[in-house]
Fold this protein.
Amino acid sequence: MANTVFIAPSILNANFNDLENEIAKISATADLLHLDIMDNKFVPNFTFDIKRAFEIIGFSKLPVDAHLMIEDPDSIAPKYAQNGCNSVTFHLEAVSNVLQTISDIKSNGAKVGIAIKPATKFSEVEPFIEKIDMLLIMTVEPGFGGQSFMYDQMPKVVAARKRINQTPEPKPLLQIDGGVSLETIAEAAAAGANCFVAGSAVYKSSDPAGMVSQLRKKAQISFIG
Ligand code: DX5
Ligand code: ZN
Protein backbone atom coordinates (compact mmCIF):
# COMPACT_ATOMS: atom_id res chain seq x y z
CA MET A 1 0.00 0.00 0.00
CA ALA A 2 1.51 3.25 -1.10
CA ASN A 3 0.21 5.46 1.65
CA THR A 4 0.77 3.33 4.71
CA VAL A 5 2.40 5.24 7.52
CA PHE A 6 3.01 4.23 11.13
CA ILE A 7 2.68 6.44 14.20
CA ALA A 8 4.70 5.45 17.26
CA PRO A 9 4.07 7.68 20.30
CA SER A 10 6.99 7.94 22.72
CA ILE A 11 6.14 7.87 26.43
CA LEU A 12 9.28 9.83 27.32
CA ASN A 13 7.16 12.88 28.14
CA ALA A 14 4.22 10.97 29.59
CA ASN A 15 3.57 10.66 33.32
CA PHE A 16 5.99 7.91 34.41
CA ASN A 17 3.93 7.29 37.56
CA ASP A 18 0.82 6.36 35.60
CA LEU A 19 2.13 4.63 32.49
CA GLU A 20 -0.65 2.06 32.16
CA ASN A 21 -3.19 4.86 31.79
CA GLU A 22 -0.90 6.97 29.63
CA ILE A 23 -0.41 4.09 27.19
CA ALA A 24 -4.12 3.25 27.22
CA LYS A 25 -4.86 6.79 25.97
CA ILE A 26 -3.21 6.08 22.62
CA SER A 27 -3.71 2.33 22.27
CA ALA A 28 -6.72 2.62 19.95
CA THR A 29 -5.16 5.01 17.43
CA ALA A 30 -1.39 4.38 17.48
CA ASP A 31 0.46 1.58 15.66
CA LEU A 32 3.39 1.08 18.02
CA LEU A 33 4.56 2.12 21.46
CA HIS A 34 8.00 3.73 21.23
CA LEU A 35 9.95 2.89 24.39
CA ASP A 36 13.07 5.04 24.90
CA ILE A 37 15.74 3.29 26.94
CA MET A 38 18.51 5.62 28.12
CA ASP A 39 21.42 4.57 30.34
CA ASN A 40 22.93 7.95 31.30
CA LYS A 41 26.10 6.88 29.45
CA PHE A 42 25.36 6.83 25.73
CA VAL A 43 23.10 9.83 26.36
CA PRO A 44 23.06 12.17 29.38
CA ASN A 45 19.69 10.97 30.67
CA PHE A 46 18.17 7.88 32.24
CA THR A 47 14.70 6.44 31.72
CA PHE A 48 14.01 2.87 32.86
CA ASP A 49 16.06 0.02 34.23
CA ILE A 50 15.58 -3.30 32.49
CA LYS A 51 13.12 -4.59 35.10
CA ARG A 52 10.79 -1.61 34.68
CA ALA A 53 11.19 -1.74 30.91
CA PHE A 54 10.05 -5.38 30.89
CA GLU A 55 7.02 -4.48 33.03
CA ILE A 56 6.02 -1.81 30.52
CA ILE A 57 6.48 -4.25 27.63
CA GLY A 58 4.30 -6.67 29.58
CA PHE A 59 1.34 -4.35 30.08
CA SER A 60 1.46 -2.49 26.75
CA LYS A 61 -1.38 -3.53 24.47
CA LEU A 62 0.50 -1.98 21.56
CA PRO A 63 3.50 -3.69 19.96
CA VAL A 64 6.62 -2.22 21.55
CA ASP A 65 9.25 -0.46 19.47
CA ALA A 66 12.27 -0.30 21.81
CA HIS A 67 14.83 2.44 21.07
CA LEU A 68 18.01 1.59 22.95
CA MET A 69 20.12 4.68 23.61
CA ILE A 70 22.64 2.65 25.58
CA GLU A 71 26.24 1.59 25.54
CA ASP A 72 26.96 -2.05 24.74
CA PRO A 73 23.70 -2.89 22.99
CA ASP A 74 25.37 -6.09 21.72
CA SER A 75 24.63 -7.93 24.95
CA ILE A 76 21.44 -6.13 26.02
CA ALA A 77 19.42 -5.84 22.79
CA PRO A 78 18.75 -9.61 22.54
CA LYS A 79 17.22 -9.51 26.04
CA TYR A 80 14.66 -6.95 24.84
CA ALA A 81 13.92 -9.22 21.89
CA GLN A 82 13.39 -12.19 24.22
CA ASN A 83 11.04 -10.18 26.40
CA GLY A 84 8.43 -9.57 23.76
CA CYS A 85 9.39 -6.38 21.92
CA ASN A 86 8.04 -6.12 18.39
CA SER A 87 11.25 -4.40 17.32
CA VAL A 88 14.55 -3.55 18.95
CA THR A 89 16.58 -0.62 17.64
CA PHE A 90 20.20 -0.06 18.64
CA HIS A 91 22.52 2.82 17.78
CA LEU A 92 25.18 2.28 15.12
CA GLU A 93 27.46 4.58 17.14
CA ALA A 94 27.25 2.32 20.21
CA VAL A 95 27.38 -1.21 18.83
CA SER A 96 30.57 -3.28 18.52
CA ASN A 97 29.48 -6.05 16.16
CA VAL A 98 26.65 -4.90 13.91
CA LEU A 99 25.99 -8.15 12.06
CA GLN A 100 26.11 -10.29 15.18
CA THR A 101 23.71 -7.98 17.02
CA ILE A 102 21.29 -7.97 14.08
CA SER A 103 21.33 -11.74 14.07
CA ASP A 104 20.97 -12.02 17.87
CA ILE A 105 17.89 -9.78 17.87
CA LYS A 106 16.27 -11.69 15.01
CA SER A 107 16.98 -15.10 16.48
CA ASN A 108 15.29 -13.98 19.69
CA GLY A 109 12.10 -13.21 17.81
CA ALA A 110 12.06 -9.44 17.23
CA LYS A 111 12.42 -7.17 14.26
CA VAL A 112 15.63 -5.19 14.16
CA GLY A 113 16.27 -1.49 13.70
CA ILE A 114 19.43 0.58 13.49
CA ALA A 115 19.41 4.22 14.61
CA ILE A 116 21.82 6.92 13.54
CA LYS A 117 22.49 10.23 15.27
CA PRO A 118 22.40 13.53 13.35
CA ALA A 119 26.18 13.56 12.79
CA THR A 120 26.26 10.02 11.36
CA LYS A 121 26.10 9.75 7.60
CA PHE A 122 23.66 7.51 5.76
CA SER A 123 26.63 5.89 3.97
CA GLU A 124 27.78 4.42 7.32
CA VAL A 125 24.55 2.45 7.79
CA GLU A 126 23.89 1.72 4.11
CA PRO A 127 25.83 -1.61 4.07
CA PHE A 128 23.27 -3.06 6.53
CA ILE A 129 20.10 -1.77 4.89
CA GLU A 130 19.05 -5.11 3.39
CA LYS A 131 19.51 -6.91 6.70
CA ILE A 132 17.26 -4.77 8.90
CA ASP A 133 13.54 -4.13 9.33
CA MET A 134 13.81 -0.44 10.19
CA LEU A 135 16.23 2.45 9.83
CA LEU A 136 15.84 5.23 12.41
CA ILE A 137 17.17 8.62 11.40
CA MET A 138 17.27 10.86 14.48
CA THR A 139 15.89 14.35 13.88
CA VAL A 140 17.22 15.61 17.24
CA GLU A 141 20.27 14.74 19.32
CA PRO A 142 19.11 11.70 21.29
CA GLY A 143 18.59 12.15 25.03
CA PHE A 144 15.62 14.43 25.59
CA GLY A 145 12.09 15.07 24.42
CA GLY A 146 10.77 18.46 23.39
CA GLN A 147 13.66 19.54 21.17
CA SER A 148 13.32 21.27 17.79
CA PHE A 149 13.06 19.18 14.63
CA MET A 150 16.30 19.23 12.62
CA TYR A 151 15.27 20.02 9.07
CA ASP A 152 18.91 19.56 8.02
CA GLN A 153 18.40 15.78 8.37
CA MET A 154 15.94 15.71 5.46
CA PRO A 155 18.55 15.13 2.72
CA LYS A 156 19.58 12.02 4.69
CA VAL A 157 15.96 10.85 4.72
CA VAL A 158 15.72 11.42 0.96
CA ALA A 159 18.91 9.40 0.37
CA ALA A 160 17.69 6.60 2.61
CA ARG A 161 14.30 6.46 0.88
CA LYS A 162 15.98 6.24 -2.52
CA ARG A 163 18.12 3.30 -1.37
CA ILE A 164 15.25 1.57 0.47
CA ASN A 165 13.15 1.70 -2.67
CA GLN A 166 15.86 -0.37 -4.38
CA THR A 167 15.78 -3.09 -1.72
CA PRO A 168 13.70 -6.25 -2.12
CA GLU A 169 10.43 -6.67 -0.22
CA PRO A 170 9.82 -6.54 2.66
CA LYS A 171 11.49 -3.14 2.67
CA PRO A 172 12.69 -1.66 5.96
CA LEU A 173 10.59 1.06 7.53
CA LEU A 174 12.14 4.52 7.51
CA GLN A 175 11.55 5.99 10.95
CA ILE A 176 12.29 9.47 12.23
CA ASP A 177 12.39 10.50 15.88
CA GLY A 178 12.56 13.94 17.45
CA GLY A 179 10.57 17.13 17.09
CA VAL A 180 7.75 15.47 15.13
CA SER A 181 4.58 17.57 15.26
CA LEU A 182 1.75 18.77 13.05
CA GLU A 183 4.17 21.48 11.85
CA THR A 184 7.01 19.13 10.86
CA ILE A 185 5.53 15.75 9.94
CA ALA A 186 4.51 16.65 6.38
CA GLU A 187 8.05 17.64 5.40
CA ALA A 188 9.46 14.40 6.83
CA ALA A 189 6.83 12.32 5.02
CA ALA A 190 7.50 14.17 1.78
CA ALA A 191 11.20 13.32 2.18
CA GLY A 192 10.27 9.63 2.45
CA ALA A 193 9.83 8.75 6.13
CA ASN A 194 6.95 6.34 6.81
CA CYS A 195 7.23 5.71 10.55
CA PHE A 196 7.01 8.64 12.95
CA VAL A 197 7.90 8.82 16.62
CA ALA A 198 6.14 11.64 18.44
CA GLY A 199 6.60 12.32 22.13
CA SER A 200 5.68 15.77 23.35
CA ALA A 201 3.34 16.46 20.41
CA VAL A 202 1.16 13.57 21.61
CA TYR A 203 1.53 13.75 25.39
CA LYS A 204 1.37 17.53 25.71
CA SER A 205 -1.84 17.49 23.68
CA SER A 206 -5.16 17.63 25.54
CA ASP A 207 -6.33 14.82 23.24
CA PRO A 208 -3.43 12.36 22.71
CA ALA A 209 -5.54 9.86 20.72
CA GLY A 210 -6.86 12.57 18.44
CA MET A 211 -3.35 13.97 17.95
CA VAL A 212 -2.14 10.55 16.76
CA SER A 213 -4.94 10.50 14.16
CA GLN A 214 -4.16 14.03 13.01
CA LEU A 215 -0.45 13.23 12.66
CA ARG A 216 -1.32 10.12 10.64
CA LYS A 217 -3.59 12.08 8.31
CA LYS A 218 -0.93 14.71 7.63
CA ALA A 219 1.77 12.11 7.04
CA GLN A 220 -0.42 10.05 4.71
CA ILE A 221 -1.18 13.01 2.51
CA SER A 222 2.51 13.90 2.11
CA PHE A 223 4.25 10.48 2.04
CA ILE A 224 5.90 10.05 -1.34
CA GLY A 225 6.50 6.29 -1.11
C1 DX5 B 1 14.81 11.44 22.10
C2 DX5 B 1 13.91 10.23 22.03
C3 DX5 B 1 12.58 10.50 21.45
C4 DX5 B 1 11.75 11.50 22.20
C5 DX5 B 1 11.07 12.33 21.18
O1 DX5 B 1 16.11 11.04 22.33
O2 DX5 B 1 14.51 9.21 21.26
O3 DX5 B 1 11.85 9.31 21.19
O4 DX5 B 1 10.77 10.96 23.04
O5 DX5 B 1 10.41 13.36 21.83
P1 DX5 B 1 9.79 14.60 21.02
O6 DX5 B 1 8.78 14.03 20.08
O7 DX5 B 1 9.23 15.44 22.09
O8 DX5 B 1 10.93 15.25 20.28
ZN1 ZN C 1 13.26 7.50 20.64
